[in-house]
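Hi R.,

Quick one: here's the Methyltransferase type 11 domain-containing protein sequence you asked about.
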Amino acid sequence: MNRQQRRALEKQNRQGRSSSLLYDVLNQAIKTHQEGNLAAAEKMYRSVLRSIPNQPDACHYLGVLFHQCGRSGEAIASINRAIMVSPNYTDAYNNLGNVYKETGDLEKATNAYRKVIELSPNHPAALNNWGVVLKDLGEYAEAIAVIQKAIELEPTKADYFQNLGNVFRLQGDLKKSAEACRQSIALQPYQADAYIGLWSTLYLDCDFDEAAKVLLQWLAFDPENAIAKHTYAAFKGGELVPERASDDYVQQTFDDFAGSFDQVLKRLDYRAPDLVAQAVSRVYPTPCKDLAVLDAGCGTGLCGPLLSPYAASLVGVDLSPKMLAKAEGRGVYDELTAAELVRYLGQRPVNFDLIVSADTLVYFGELGTFIQAAKNALRPGGHLVFTLEKGDCDEGFKLNIHGRYSHKQEYVESLIISSGMQISAIENEKLRNEGGVPVLGILVTAGLIL
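And here's the predicted structure, written out as tokens:
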């Protein structure tokens, strides 16, 4: 071997070692991503892409990570980079469909899933996901056929049966819905969504005894499950009803809901953020960006852009880290904190000019503790604006079968007055539609007298 050949071989070996190291970094990034350490995983993916700018796996998984962080526009761009380099990358098309589905673009989601199936007709995950989109589009018969094909290909996937049960329930075939949900539970006894689906189906079928048995079965498998305990309390009522939903219930519910939250609310004609913004504009007719504002229970940050014109500083607090990740993606908050609301307020006396809470206090029954904590956190002349679901109940509040509390208007008025605040306005408004029926609410504006 001459000198030139030796140099060529040494260069090839160096390139091979470098390539091997990069793939080690990529595999570690994927492992770190799966463990939930998104910040560290992002750094590793970017490290790979600095060396190989369009490495398709790094582009794909970085896109998935962006979406998990609420940066869905960047997610779509990154996954499309992977597809541009690797046009037959079925998993990238599938996750692109998931991003479109969860951001409400059902047409583009359908196109992405169809591309997967064109490339790989027996791709069960894409078939299942496409079935969910068809369900959301109201194409129930086609959704059932597509999900059933996914089940034929992968008959041990509990979530496929759960999705099938959801479609049958919407179609009105409650018997088949119950059968599919039971199959999902048999495959994965700890899956909360399947129990909720089966319980909902039995409740709609007026089989209340069997519905109670399902909740007890769920609690037997998972006695500390916060969602199971709260649902059972809402179903049975009486002494089981807590004064407020537990922190674990709220966090689990909204961590699970974060991915599709904005999309679902669009379909419900959700008005709470606009209503609180209108109330704020009546108190502060000219936005001057000079207020310390708290978005109390900020969720994915729907109120953030509406409050930003008033805020010298805009803080969001919520129990759900996954909802906060979505809020961060809006780029309007100066600070986002994962915390229980009353505890958070108690640690910040005389701190805010404006506290806004849109559709958060429906997870509180007893409101006196919150109202007093909010009053103590306001500066003199500050204001509190919030929404509640309106209820006709003998007591001040009631835990409803869907897991949210409704409140009697007189109860709310008495608590505000006894706290030392002044009621500026209480208005009855439609908050959203649910099952085609308007959900009536109370929009409250209260002030701390100078």
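The longest strand covers residues 378-390.

Cheers,
M.
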